[in-house]
Amino acid sequence: MPTDLRRPAAPAFSPATPGSTARRSGPSRRRSRNPLPALVLVLFLVFFVVPVLWLVLAATKTDEQLVHDNPLSPGSWTALKANWEALTAYQGNVILVWLRNSALYSFLALVITLCVAIPAGYALAMTEFRGRRALLIATLVVMLMPNATLVVPLFLELNAVRLIGSMWSVILPYSFYPFGVYLAYIYFTTALPRELLDAARLDGCSELGVFRRVALPLATPVVALVGFFSFVANWTNYFLPYVLLPESDQFPVQVGLGTLLNDVPQFNPTIGTLAVQRPVLALATLLAITPVLVVFLFSQRFLVAGMLAGATKN
Amino acid sequence: MSSLSTPDGRAAARRVRWPGRAGHGFVAAYATLLVAFGVVPTAYAIYFAFTDAGANFAGLRNFVTAASDFRFAAAVGHVALYLLFWLAALVVFVVALALLLHRLAARGLSRALRLLYYLPGALAGAASVLVWLFMLDPAVSPVSFLLRAFGFGTFGEVIAIDHLPVLFTLIAFWTGAGGWIVVMYGALNTISPEVLEAARIDGAGGWSTAWRIQIPLLRKWIVYMVILAFAGGAQLFVEPQLLSQASVGVAGRDYSLNQLSYDFAFQNNNVGTAAAVSVELLVVGLVVAGVFVTRSRFFDAD
User: Fold this and answer.
1) Residue A275 lies in a domain
2) What is the rounded distance in angstroms from the CA atom of residue B172 to the CA atom of residue B123?
3) Does B269 fall in a domain?
4) What is the pLDDT of residue A79?
5) ipTM for the whole complex
6) Which of A131, A183, A200, B75 lies at a 20 to 30 A Cα distance from B18?
């Protein structure tokens, strides 16, 4: 990655990276013996972390232990193994099918998103064409409008073109990702020197060549960023696949979790023989979030930069 | 094509003027998706909202049907109350925590805390709801002593309908606040140290620095956060939907507007009314987004 090019991306891309100027002085030096701030920070730490911790531990317990043991005590490998076997036995390994579906939908949508959003952001930032401003404003408006509003209308539309039940009925809407276009737009505006493009043109590069040989190799950070946000958004989406994919073997894992929940007797007493124990549900939840959790832990830098990318360019 | 220019002539002059074709080529795929999954569904929703089952023009009848449904006013009330709690919690706690983290002398600790606060974001969607179903069930919750202290002995008592706005706020805050804390922290870092130093020399303590300098400078970020959280919160669906499953329909059924729209479409087979609800949500979303984009100068479109 051309690290020297991350710098010019300021301010949108640098404010929170380590070594920012704001950290040497400022009010942090003030001696404050008031214990309240520390107390608040610790309380919120407990609030944010304990449920995650509990979830990890719950997957290693039996239902019996879950109810009677200390909630934050670890279980055993045996119980974890038993939960895993119960989970995979559920509807003949359907959990793995769900996970595979999630991976397939998120990955295909990610690829399409990148192929679509990066060139679009580039064109909006670096070129002039009829309708450019309108497209930019439409992008901003749609970006701020949560896609859940359009789920029922999307169903009607896709129903009319007979796409309901096809995996493309979720992948294509996922691929429409205005926030990604906006990120790419901001990145190219702030980080790509125009002189570079002009030089390439003088050397006889076609417009496509300029994009492919000059802009694209410099766009690694924003490709990673758009990819990350798109992946997480698609992996965690519930409403759209819930509405558009009717068959259990097409569910992504998020919708699958709902199916499992229906078969937990403590939450749904009408359930009979198919019963799913609570630790099994906890294990399924843990599996469902693992990919996103891993991506989270390995991409903090990108995350911070990306979330700040809503900043103005001035 | 050389007459093409934007109102902002200087920016346009810096940008290379091509024959528009190349630019169009780059955005063609995106524009297609925008039309297919942004414009067409919107048009479709509007079409269905104003027609009846026989495709005849229905005027406002679908909107009247929706509004006069006994669940509609309740759902609007639910969502409004939830938004109130959610936005208040978000503004107060996110800004406070970001300020506290920013004041923290130990940078490594501050960084670690930001990551840990952010971690539950990985559980967005159904996973967060499932985790909180457990957290709210006194039988297994690690905070069952708290739940019992409030006088709730069973899961059913915890998820009584009056509690739902607070419970959904808890879930939304748990998954969403960390990301915003990171954003606010980053925004705080953009405030020049000289300004804070000057305030300190003038005798401003931590509290008045925060109140008079940092918070005013964070204002546009707070507005940005509120707009996005408002738009997202109005779309409440997965939380009440899963909760209603977990309580055999006792709590959370037809709780939010999106659920109502879903039920009109798929339970009552009344597409027109479902579309009418969607159109109303769309108008709210569009107006809020449009006002923000055009008035706030947050996104400098050129």
Assistant:
1) yes
2) 11
3) yes
4) 92
5) 0.84
6) A183
Residue B65 lies in a domain: no
- Contact between chains at A207 and B132 (C-beta distance less than 8 A): no
Q: Where are the alpha helices (DSSP H) in chain A?
A: 36-58, 63-68, 77-89, 94-126, 132-144, 151-160, 168-175, 178-191, 194-202, 207-209, 220-236, 239-244, 253-262, 278-298, 300-307
CA-CA distance, A236 to A254, in Å (whole number)?
7
| B27: Cα separation from own chain's centroid | 28
Residue A142: list chain B partners with CB under 8 A.
34, 38, 289
Residue A70, classed as helix, strand or coil, is: coil
- Domain of A112: which CATH number? 1.10.3720.10
Instruction: Express each pLDDT in A10-21 by its tens digit.
Output: 334 433 444 444
Tokens representing B89 are 């919690």
Measure A73 CA to nearest chain B CA, in Å. Answer: 10
Asked whether residue B262 is assigned to any structural domain, the reply reads yes
Per-state percent for chain B, helix, strand, coil, to nearest 5: 75, 0, 25
Q: Per the structure, how many domains does chain B have?
A: 2
pTM: 0.82
Per-residue pLDDT for B249 more than 60? yes
Average pLDDT of chain B is 84
CATH code (residue B90): 1.10.3720.10
DSSP B16: B
Q: Is the dihedral of CA A258, A259, A265, A269 positive or negative?
A: positive
Peptide bond into B138 cis (omega under 30): no
Rounded distance between C-alpha atoms, residue B141 and residue A226, angstroms: 37
Candidate from A136, A175, A236 with C-beta closest to B125: A236
